[in-house]
From TrEMBL:
A Pfam family of this chain: Acyltransf_C
Residue stretches in coiled coil: none
GO molecular function, one term: acyltransferase activity
Domain Phospholipid/glycerol acyltransferase: 30-152
Similarity-based family: Belongs to the 1-acyl-sn-glycerol-3-phosphate acyltransferase family.
Name of the protein in its database record: 1-acyl-sn-glycerol-3-phosphate acyltransferase delta
Bilayer-crossing regions: 66-84, 248-269, 275-296
Length: 317
């Protein structure tokens, strides 16, 4: 998937960050907080993981539904990805337990948190801003109101092993609306990512203070997006790591290993002349193709969940 983004579509990913923090990226454990408004934001995240050598140890707090996506979801299960049901009563123990398992992870990892909990849509935004109003919080223009419990439990459980929070804000040039289908069709996009490294010690220990800290972080992220919309760039210098050839080499290697025998098999099937065999092969190929289309659909915002639409009772305390 990374090879498709970087080498097939040629999408450019530019990093804006502080040069003093740059040498630490990939050399420490970190909690990444990213906005969730684009269908390929996770793919851009993977690209940066690849460039800093932590692709294999990239983790995320993901909705449970993704564990059932064929191949990718099963793989995530074995990669110690943390899954949640987005029901706090059930998640509070399971998420904490999965995070504890990460404490002795043998490689440097990045743990991704989409604190908004779901992807941005105008309707979800309107409802979450009603919740913000009820809580006496300022309005956000480009983000949903962040859910604070997952962030608090992550900080609490990874404190002492994660060194920092990487506050990451992603946007695309020229109001591009990137899609996975676009990438697979070879369309080139231009992603810009602004990363601020915040030492974990500066995140408060107390739950209410930690929640207030996160709300303030999202107000700042909103102002960065505002800056981007006005000027076409994020504040701060560009420190972009170049794409590396490994994902391409990996992809070419596996394509040869898989496609060559598959091609031979197909040729044999066609030359067999058996209508039944050819029909069965056609049904299998169509099913795989429909399965892949369904998987791509998982990335599409207009096929997204209703989470964040049904408003929970507002707590005014
Ligand atoms: C740049 C580098 C990138 C590095 C990349 C690294 C790794 C990449 C690896 C893999 C990539 C894979 C990509 C897969 C992506 C998959 C991502 C997802 O699945 S996102 C969805 C799952 N994740 C989350 O939901 C995380 C955020 N959520 C939380 O933290 C939640 O708190 C929770 C722990 C999930 C619990 O959920 P629950 O619904 O029960 O939430 P809360 O109890 O928090 O909700 C009640 C709370 O919210 C207020 N409320 C109610 N309605 C709304 C609303 N509409 N909007 C906002 N807030 C609302 C309500 O008043 C309560 O408030 P309070 O807490 O004050 O009581
Ligand atoms: C050679 C190329 C072959 C191409 C094969 C293409 C295979 C396609 C693989 C699809 C990968 C599926 C990964 C799904 C990741 C989706 C991440 C995501 O963004 O999830 C959304 C959640 O965060 C929130 O969900 P909502 O509440 O918004 O709903």
């Amino acid at each position: 998937m990374v090879a498709a983004l970087e080498w097939w579509s040629g999408t450019e990913c530019t990093l804006y960050t502080d040069p003093k923090s740059y040498p630490l990226y990939g050399n420490e454990n970190a909690i990444v907080v990213l906005n969730h408004a684009f269908e390929i934001d996770f793919l851009c995240g993977w690209t940066f993981c690849e460039r800093f050598g932590v692709l294999g140890s990239s983790k995320v707090l993901a909705k449970k539904e993704l564990a059932y996506v064929p191949v990718i979801g099963w793989m995530w299960y074995f990669l110690e990805i943390v899954f949640c049901k987005r029901k706090w009563e059930e998640d509070r123990t399971t998420v904490a337990q999965s995070l504890q398992n990460l404490r002795d992870y043998p490689e440097n990892y990045w743990f991704l948190l989409y604190c908004e909990g779901t992807r941005f849509t105008p309707k979800k935004h309107q409802i979450s801003m009603q919740v913000a109003e009820g809580k006496g919080l300022p309005q956000l223009k480009y983000h949903l109101l962040p859910r604070t419990k997952g962030f608090y439990v992550t900080v609490q459980n990874l404190r002492g092993t994660a060194a920092a929070v990487y506050d990451s804000t992603l946007n695309f040039r020229n109001n591009e609306v990137p899609t996975l289908l676009g990438i697979l069709n070879g369309k080139k996009y231009h992603a810009d990512l602004y990363v601020r490294r915040i030492p974990l010690e500066s995140v408060p220990d107390d739950e209410a203070e930690c929640a207030a800290w996160l709300h303030k972080l999202y107000q700042e992220k909103d102002s960065f997006q505002d800056h981007y919309t006005r000027t076409g760039r994020f504040p701060g210098p560009i420190m972009s790591p170049p794409r590396r050839p490994w994902s391409l080499i990996n992809w070419l290697f596996w394509s040869c290993v898989v496609l060559y025998p598959l091609g031979l098999l197909l040729a044999q099937l066609l030359s067999s002349g058996s209508v039944l065999t050819i029909t069965a092969a056609g049904v299998v190929c169509s099913s795989v193709s429909m399965g892949i289309r369904w998987m791509i659909g998982q990335t599409e915002i207009d096929k997204g969940s209703n989470y964040g639409i049904k408003t929970a009772p507002v707590n005014n305390n």
